């Protein structure tokens, strides 16, 4: 069992989400940075889909009441067990009674803490994830919360460290145009890819609100709500795009000018307020597959 002494700004339980329930108005959700969650689980010998903790801006303090193995991945944070510094991206063995402290990330936004056996909370619609938009799943963690771990662990991997690239200060995300790019002025896609956009403080797991050059519309009347996907760049009437992330709504009534390619969505999830991001067209071989995926949600 692990006891939360200080949760930090936002700590939630996340796994790989609950796909297949959009008809009920429930999104997939799950870890915002799925690659980091998968890696953390592999490092402690869990299935990649096991539930772990997602720390937004770090700041966690927790006490291990039983011996366990843990791993931290994602946004790099200073961390320590009973004051002894521990590293990222490798398994760490914690004794009963030891206190884990995780500081604030030096770059990026979201850090993942996996415990051997996975976080054992009751699943809802097949997932243990917290969906901050719908309120489904366990509530965000608060001081005094106690979490049990499961027993369905696998063999430990034959490595004690998994080096990862540093998160870029000026990330570039690749786009697939549409499905509603024809609702915008002919130069709108060029504008979107020409200049940097800043991530505003009004961003969360639902989406990153961006500030930058206005994206002018050619069609100004309202459109019926249609299906949305993670990575969609929806543009409200103010012309400032919103990049949908893990807890996005399943439908939306503003046109989507483009969709961030799936390969770049983990990087998109690590954008922090004040950071700038640039967009580029995705290579042609990726474009058709991503466009079909979005159109399948809108028909």
What does it look like?
With 299 residues, this protein is an alpha+beta fold. The protein folds into 2 domains: 2-147, Jelly Rolls (Sandwich), CATH 2.60.120; 172-298, Beta Barrel (Cyclophilin). The chain contains 4 helices and 20 strands. The strands form 4 sheets. It has a 7-stranded mixed β-barrel. β16 (232-234) and β17 form a beta hairpin. The protein is elongated. The termini are far apart. The model has no long low-confidence stretch (mean pLDDT 93).
Notable features of this structure?
4 helices, alpha+beta, 6-stranded antiparallel sheet, 7-stranded mixed beta barrel, Cyclophilin, Jelly Rolls, 12% helix, 299 residues, single chain, 2 domains
List the helices and strands and how they pair.
Elements: E1 2-6, E2 10-14, H1 34-43, E3 52-56, E4 61-64, E5 68-74, E6 79-81, E7 84-86, E8 92-94, E9 99-102, E10 110-115, E11 146-147, E12 172-177, H2 188-194, E13 197-199, E14 207-211, E15 226-227, E16 232-234, E17 242-244, E18 251-252, E19 256-260, H3 265-269, E20 276-281, H4 284-298
Parallel strand pairs: 12-20
Antiparallel strand pairs: 1-4, 1-11, 2-3, 3-10, 4-9, 5-8, 5-10, 6-7, 6-9, 12-19, 13-14, 13-20, 14-17, 15-18, 16-17, 16-19
Helix content estimate = 10-25%
Largest sheet: 7 strands, mixed, barrel
First and last CA, distance: 46 Å
Side by side, the strands of the main sheet go: 12-19-16-17-14-13-20
User: Under the CATH scheme, which class of the largest domain?
Assistant: Mainly Beta
CATH topology of the largest domain: Jelly Rolls
Q: What's the mean pLDDT score? A: 93
- Give Rg in angstroms: 20 Å
Q: At CATH's second level, what is the architecture of the largest domain?
A: Sandwich
Briefly note the structural class of the backbone.
Answer: alpha+beta
Please work out how many helical segments DSSP would assign: 4
Number of strands: 20
Shape: elongated
* Sequence of secondary-structure elements: EEHEEEEEEEEEEHEEEEEEEHEH
Low-pLDDT stretches are none
User: Beta-strand level of the residues, as a percent range?
Assistant: 25-35%
Number of domain modules: 2
